[in-house]
Amino acid sequence: MKYPVKNFIKCLISNFILKKPTPLFISLEVTRRCNAKCPFCGYWRLEEPELTVEEIKGVLDEAYDLGCSIAVMTGGEPLLRRDLPSILEYAKEIGLSVILLSNGYLLKDRVSDFCNYVDAVNVSIDFPDVHHDKNRGLNGLLERTVSGIKLLRALEIATNINCVVTGKHSLEDVRKILFLAKELDSQFTFSPVFITPHQYPHGSILGETLEKDKEVMRVANWNLVKSVADMLLYYKKHGFRKTIQNSSAYLKLVRDKGRFTCFPFSFQFAVASDGTVSAVCPASLFGSHNLGNALKQNLKDIWYSKKAQILRDKFKECKLSESLGCYLFCVAEPSLPFTNPTTIIDYIRSGLETLR
């Protein structure tokens, strides 16, 4: 993973020395269209507007000026946009590192279109067998995802496999995915599923989730999560440090179901497919965390607005980890460096392992 050094250093100095929030990531939703039919996500049921290429370029310019080092391109399924390569190419041209999030189905079909414009590709693999295809409602998904990862690694593009552990998982399911990641020379991350509170329809920030699906996915026995975290902590010490990207601090936090101070709008922010700017957070006890629209306001004005600072302060009091088990990797892990310096050491160590 190649970081723009100037913005990366600026981010660290601003956040940890000057105590001035400066983002490292922009999570940019380029579409909500999707070719999968995941029961825990309603995007595939929606017809939503999409930013044009020129609008996206304007957002990326402002994100870089704000201090971002990394653009995370997400969806829906970003590869459904035929013009995605021009978006990725522009992000690279202005100096951003680019991470592409994909369900993996179209990777091998489009790898030649985007391979020169990404630094890393993240995919989700739920199960190590046919259950993955069934869970995502897309036949052939696992096979095509693995084929895509192999092509990316042959091109020396970093990949990461993310596994969200639900009530449908066994410890062996996660172990097999971990070993698959190592076999593919890919990285691996894990987080437990989080069913959001009632602010969103049927408990999902992503759209309608049927009650029967929600109850099947919910982790009723935290011992499963403890077992997964303990297993990953063990393997990090025994030959998998390069593979497992969860920090030890994160794994211990999840294992112990501890409380952490949440900073979802300090290192990163999200821009939705219609330009809405928000914190990267699956739920909020404080009402809406939409802060403006990137098509109507400058990102810097939104980021440093009074409303944004009020929300940052409120997030620090969030207790969803204690009450509902909110430990999503994309929220909890970037929050830990603000209160646990050992996390930064773990990141540096993992980075050095990756370079070997």
Q: What do these coordinates show?
A:
A 9-stranded mixed β-sheet has the order 6-5-4-3-2-1-7-8-9. With 356 residues, the chain is α/β, with parallel strands linked by helices. The chain contains 15 helices and 9 strands. The longest helix has 15 residues. The two termini are 13 Å apart. It is globular, with a radius of gyration of 19 Å. About 3% of the residues have low confidence. 42% of the residues lie in helices and 13% in strands. 46% of the residues are buried.
Which helices and strands appear, and what pairs or packs with what?
Elements: H1 5-16, E1 25-29, H2 53-66, E2 70-74, H3 84-93, E3 97-102, H4 107-114, E4 120-124, H5 131-136, H6 141-154, E5 158-165, H7 171-183, E6 187-192, H8 211-217, H9 223-237, H10 248-256, E7 268-271, E8 276-278, E9 290-293, H11 299-303, H12 306-315, H13 320-324, H14 329-335, H15 342-355
Parallel strand pairs: 1-2, 1-7, 2-3, 3-4, 4-5, 5-6
Antiparallel strand pairs: 7-8, 8-9
Sheet having the most strands: 9 strands, mixed
If you compute it from the alpha carbons, what radius of gyration comes out, rounded to the nearest whole angstrom? 19 Å
Kindly, what is the distance between the CA atoms of the first and last residues, rounded to a whole number of angstroms?
13 Å
Reading side by side through the largest sheet, how are the strands ordered?
6-5-4-3-2-1-7-8-9
Order of helices and strands: HEHEHEHEHHEHEHHHEEEHHHHH
Question: Average pLDDT, to the nearest integer?
Answer: 87
**What proportion of the residues form beta strands (DSSP E)?**
5-15%
- Percent helix, as a range, is 40-55%
Alpha-beta content class: alpha/beta
